[in-house]
Specification:
Helix content is 37%, strand content 7%. By secondary structure, the protein is of the alpha+beta class. It has a four-stranded antiparallel sheet with strand order 3-4-5-6, with no helix packed on it. It has a two-stranded antiparallel sheet with strand order 1-2. A hairpin with a 2-residue loop joins strand 4 and strand 5. The radius of gyration is 53 Å and the shape is rod-shaped.
Length: 353
């Protein structure tokens, strides 16, 4: 009876050992806890080298089994002979309620991204995004090291208000200087210096205007007051010498063209001499009742405006574009009608009438 019992026990142990030999290792070291087997990438189960042979008693304790997962298995790493796998909670078959073993990453273990792929196996798009993020994080430091214009731009932006304030101060200073008119004795001194002034034609520097019987002074229809009536009604006329001599008692060649004098104004005498028709300005020029030549009066005005800072050109006695621009600026500052011409209000304002 004892022999039969011993035989049965031995057969049971042999069968149990054979059954254990046919199953994959599911246990780790007692200090590491239990984990679920990975079905997606695990190799076929093989008997352990230290499995119990048939008929031998089952071992009471086994040491950690060393397994070598495939090299392409993500998340696998080796540590002290035990196999640790990342993402065990996402694998099928993981038991509910069981704690997931906390594994430590070695410096050589590749990190996983959100998609579960190793960081070294990123797609080209992911690599570009990561590179851009790294560049964005290093941008400020790199800018400081390389001296990028980011810092100067901030400095320039901070200095902009002071520069604008300085510009406004300079403009106000210039306006204050322009607003100061020369004293009457200075005006008389300028006029005495130009007592014998005679203008010379300069068609290359100051182009001549051409005759146009339909010409009207632009904007003159808006100039209000009797002092601007001659500008509103002016239109060029073409006549010969006899006509001009019969209508006006004073016709003179001034600065390359003939002018006639009438009631305080000089006008271009179109047609008086076809070979002498150089006119820098087609319109009336106010000189007052003293009937001074227009080129002398123009030179006086140029000198005074030059002293006040309005006129930047040469005192040439020609009512060209630069002189008219200076006149317009002065008239605007003085609150006069902007005619860009020498008219009675402007000459009175300059103290030269």
């Amino acid at each position: 009876m004892k022999k039969l019992t011993s035989l049965l026990i031995g057969c049971s142990l042999a069968l149990a050992g054979a059954a254990l030999a046919q199953q994959p290792v599911e246990q780790q070291s007692p200090s590491k806890g239990k984990r679920a087997p990975e079905k997606a990438h695990a190799p076929e189960a093989q008997p352990r080298p230290n499995a119990a042979k048939p008929g031998a008693p089952a071992p009471t304790h086994r040491g950690p089994t060393k397994e070598y997962p495939p090299t392409n298995q993500p998340g696998a790493m080796k540590e002290h002979g035990a196999t640790h796998e990342r993402g065990a909670t996402n694998e099928p078959g993981a038991g509910k309620g069981r704690k997931t073993p906390v594994t430590q990453e070695s410096p050589t273990t590749p990190k996983q991204n959100v998609s579960g792929q190793p960081a070294g196996a990123q797609t080209p798009g992911a690599k570009q995004q990561a590179e851009q993020r790294r560049k964005g994080m290093k941008g400020p430091a790199a800018g400081k090291a390389a001296g990028t214009p980011a810092a100067p731009a901030a400095g320039a932006a901070g200095a902009a208000p002071s520069g604008q304030a300085a510009g406004r101060q300079n403009t106000q200073a210039n306006a204050g200087a322009r607003a100061k008119k020369p004293a009457p004795e200075q005006v008389q001194q300028i006029k005495s210096q130009h007592a014998n002034f005679r203008a010379q034609p300069k068609p290359q520097q100051v182009p001549s205007v051409t005759y146009n019987q339909n010409y009207r002074i632009q904007g003159s229809e808006h100039w209000q007051g009797p002092q601007y009536e001659v500008f509103r009604s002016y239109h060029p006329e073409w006549h010969d010498q006899g006509w001009y001599r019969s209508h006006y008692n004073r016709v003179e060649l001034i600065g390359g063209g003939y002018y006639y004098w009438n009631n305080g104004y000089w006008y271009p005498a179109w047609g008086y001499s076809p070979s002498e028709q150089y006119y820098a300005y087609d319109g009336p020029i106010y000189v007052g009742h003293s009937a001074e030549p227009p080129d002398k009066v123009i030179a006086d005005v140029q000198a005074v405006l030059q002293q006040m800072g309005y006129y930047k050109g040469e005192v040439d006695g020609l009512l060209g574009p630069l002189t008219r621009e200076a006149l317009a600026a002065y008239q605007a500052d003085q609150g006069l009608t902007t005619t860009a011409a020498i008219d009675e209000p402007t000459l009175d304002s300059l103290g030269m009438s």
